[in-house]
């Protein structure tokens, strides 16, 4: 299974959108970068599914453009005009060469879900490795209307309960991906560090 960040060269604000190739070709989030459908097409001829971590605009703005290019199913927790498959907590979804468990992780967004596989975690915005706020384990912002720090803390705890030690790579909605170093931090260490900072009520941004 290969994973490509198809919004890596974006010149405007967007999430990381990840293309997984293998037995089932899947795009995790679509981002807001114009032309992302062309980048996907540079890698693959077909797309089996689009799987959304949540529906903030930086994650879904290019959904129609991608669907105009590819006849793909759309998996999402919350309702959406293009949704073909509803996601629920503890569901599983095949992506690339792995089967991923759906973990409901609200707080940053009410419809937020993360995807936990055997070797990879797609965490959306609930936890990221580096994002300008913290460089080695950061949590999703919770200072906007409809967001909740308390619920995000519980989501991080839930995520840790579902996270096997075999997961070695974290693909987050922003910042860099993180791959565990046998002599250094694990993915669990990164999530635990983000949880500790959230529990200590550390500010995500100075004006929070």
Automatic annotation (TrEMBL):
Among Pfam families, the record links this protein to:
Lactamase_B
Q: Which UniProt keywords apply?
A: Hydrolase, Metal-binding, Zinc
According to the entry, every stretch annotated as the Metallo-beta-lactamase domain falls at: 14-174
Is-annotated flag, keyword Zinc?
A: yes
Gene Ontology molecular function, alphabetical: hydrolase activity; metal ion binding
* Cofactors: Zn(2+)
Q: Does the keyword Cytoplasm apply?
A: no
State what protein this is by name: Metallo-beta-lactamase superfamily protein
Species this chain originates from: Halogranum amylolyticum
